[in-house]
Each structure stands twice: as structure tokens, then as C-alpha cells.
């Protein structure tokens, strides 16, 4: 297999140096280094990712995409596929900070309401000794102070391990969705019934006896079409999903684009027929007048295109000689024309 080019290296370096990148940012870098757009070169984009991951697999890394469950946006990032003791040495966080982060994560994912967040007060009240054994945390560091916790939360948010939601709560960051996919599965975090990914932030089935969870963006994809029945895929209970006005307009536009263009051609044909009908209903006198004008124009055009000959001049003179005479009698011009005609006959 050919080695990676500088274009592949640029994509890897961008993700490593900037952290997880939003989909549009990552695709913009791809377009800049390749000169190709994603819309028209989707296969080339996938080939780049496949080739990069084949090389990264030798060092237990992977370039993968994940979805932010709070807003549905897609992120790309590089993650470590092996969680061993050696890999833990590469982190910049202290042991108490890692234990505190683990406590925050567990509190978020085990929320029975599937809101995917906890309040800042709840995060600060998490005790480290409840998250790890005494052998993992030195006795001097068990009492992690409030100020240290606040500083740790700030760093986690800055590094995208956590996020601050619009309502002031704390949720998972893009890095957590990227790195903790296996951890979610191993800890039996409930999954989304549509995409089968961990349902950290999701909607619950209205039936309290049903455990089905579905991400909001998966609900939109599943229920936004009006023809789809809005029921729980697990128990069949009616799901209280309301199609927004924007979704309805988007669906109508999609249906319009999918309709064939045949009605437009029929409309044009009917329009042509209407013009013909209008022409046939035109008064006969007007049609005759217009026809006469067309004939005169044709005669004039023909006379201009032919050269003047002696026979044509003779015919014109004879026509003048035989022309009508006004009430005042033949004028001088008429008499001259007659004499000229007589000379021509002689």
C-alpha cells in the first residue's frame, strides 16, 4: 500500500492539534488540501478516511466520527483504541481529576430521565471515594476541594471532555462521545432503538413499563414523514411527536423535487393550444387584412431582390397608360405616359 501523502498528514495533524472538529470544519480542510468538494467526491473522502485508519491502526489509533447528542452535529476526532496503563500515562490530568471526571460521567449516563446533564452543584458534590478504590487515590488527595473541582470542570469543558449546555448544566463533550463508545457498551448504558448508539440524551417512551429510548435527531428522521405512524417501536404506544412547521415545509420541498416534470410539459402544450384557438377565433376581416399585408410585404421584398429590366419598365408604363383618370381629366403626367407608351409600341 502506498504511503500517506502530505494531504493525509494534514488532515491527521489538523484533528490532533485542534481536537475534535465539526463536520463542516473537517470537510473544509479536506476540500482545501484536495481541491475537491464533498458533495461531488464523497467516495474520495471515504477513501481518504479508510487509508488514514489503515495506517493509524498500527499504533492503536483511529480517526472516527461521532454525533453530539445535544444538537445532532457530527464531529471528527482521533481516539486511542487501547485503554491500558501505558496509554493513561499520556494524559495531562492528575489521578484525582480523572476520578472526578469518571464520577461526573457516571452521574450523567445513569440519569433515568435521559436528560444527559447534571447541574453544576451536583457535579461539585460528587465525592471521589465513591468512584474509585482507596488504592487508586492517595489519602492526601481524597478530599478534592471545591475550587479544585471547579478548575477541573473548566479544563474538561475547554478540552471538550464535558460541555456547558444552554441551560447552565453540564453534559458530555465531543471527546467523550468519541472515546467512550466502548465504555458505554461495557457499562450497559441504554441504547437508542433507531441507531443502536448509547442514548445519553434521548426521549423516553411514554409507557413507563417500556425502556425504549430514541435520540431527538433519530426521532426526527423516523417520525417527521407524515405517512409514518408515530408509535413506539417497542410496545406500540402512541409517541407524542409533533412535526414542526420547518420539518413540514422541508418535507413538502422534498416531495416537490421528487415529482416528475411531465405536468409542466402538458401545461405548456395547453398554452400553445390556447394560442392556436385564439388565432382561430380572430375576426375574418382582421385575418384577411393581415394576410394581405403579408402578401404585399412578400411582393415588395421580391421586387427589391430582382434587377430592374426593360420589360418591367415597359409593363409599368403600360400600367400607367391604362390607369384610371381622375375627375379633372388626364393630367400632364398621364399624357406623357400615354405618348411614351405609343412610342414604345411603334
From TrEMBL:
Q: One Pfam family of this protein, by short name?
A: SMC_Nse1
- Annotated Gene Ontology cellular component terms: nucleus; Smc5-Smc6 complex
Q: Where is the composition biased (Polar residues)?
A: 272-283, 291-300
Region of interest called Disordered, as start-end residue ranges on this chain? 250-346
Chain intervals with Low complexity compositional bias: 301-312
- Name the family: Belongs to the NSE1 family.
Subunit: Component of the Smc5-Smc6 complex.
Protein name as catalogued: Non-structural maintenance of chromosomes element 1 homolog
Q: Which organism is it from?
A: Tagetes erecta
The record lists the lineage as:
Eukaryota, Viridiplantae, Streptophyta, Embryophyta, Tracheophyta
Amino acid at each position: 500500500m502506498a504511503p500517506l501523502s502530505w494531504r493525509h498528514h494534514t488532515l491527521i495533524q489538523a484533528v490532533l492539534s485542534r481536537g475534535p472538529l465539526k463536520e463542516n470544519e473537517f470537510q473544509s480542510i479536506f476540500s482545501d488540501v484536495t481541491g475537491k468538494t464533498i458533495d461531488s467526491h464523497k467516495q474520495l473522502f471515504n477513501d481518504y478516511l479508510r487509508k488514514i485508519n489503515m495506517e493509524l491502526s498500527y499504533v492503536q489509533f483511529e480517526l472516527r466520527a461521532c454525533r453530539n447528542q445535544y444538537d445532532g452535529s457530527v464531529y471528527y476526532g482521533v481516539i486511542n483504541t487501547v485503554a491500558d496503563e501505558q496509554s493513561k500515562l499520556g494524559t495531562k490530568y492528575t489521578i484525582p481529576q480523572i476520578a472526578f471526571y469518571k464520577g461526573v460521567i457516571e452521574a450523567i449516563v445513569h440519569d433515568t430521565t435521559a436528560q444527559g446533564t447534571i447541574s453544576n452543584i451536583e457535579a461539585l458534590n460528587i465525592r471521589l471515594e465513591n468512584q474509585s478504590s482507596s488504592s487508586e487515590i492517595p489519602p492526601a488527595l481524597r478530599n478534592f476541594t471545591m475550587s479544585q473541582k471547579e478548575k477541573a470542570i473548566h479544563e474538561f469543558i475547554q478540552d471538550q471532555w464535558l460541555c456547558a449546555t444552554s441551560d447552565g448544566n453540564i453534559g458530555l463533550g465531543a471527546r467523550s462521545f468519541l472515546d467512550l463508545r466502548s465504555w458505554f457498551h461495557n457499562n450497559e448504558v441504554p441504547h437508542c432503538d433507531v441507531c443502536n448508539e448509547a442514548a445519553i440524551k434521548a426521549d423516553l417512551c411514554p409507557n413507563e413499563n417500556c425502556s425504549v429510548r430514541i435520540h431527538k435527531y433519530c426521532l426526527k428522521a423516523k417520525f417527521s414523514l407524515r405517512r409514518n405512524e408515530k408509535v413506539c417501536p417497542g410496545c406500540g404506544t402512541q409517541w407524542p411527536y409533533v412535526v414542526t412547521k420547518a420539518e413540514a415545509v422541508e418535507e413538502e420541498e422534498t416531495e416537490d423535487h421528487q415529482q416528475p416534470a411531465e405536468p409542466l410539459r402538458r401545461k405548456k402544450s395547453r398554452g400553445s393550444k390556447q394560442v392556436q384557438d385564439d388565432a382561430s377565433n380572430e375576426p375574418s376581416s382582421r385575418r384577411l387584412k393581415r394576410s394581405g399585408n403579408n402578401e404585399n410585404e412578400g411582393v415588395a421584398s421580391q421586387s427589391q431582390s430582382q434587377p430592374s429590366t426593360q420589360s418591367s419598365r415597359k409593363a409599368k408604363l403600360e400600367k400607367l397608360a391604362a390607369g384610371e383618370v381622375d375627375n379633372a381629366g388626364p393630367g400632364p403626367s398621364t399624357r406623357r405616359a400615354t405618348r411614351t407608351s405609343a412610342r414604345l409600341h411603334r
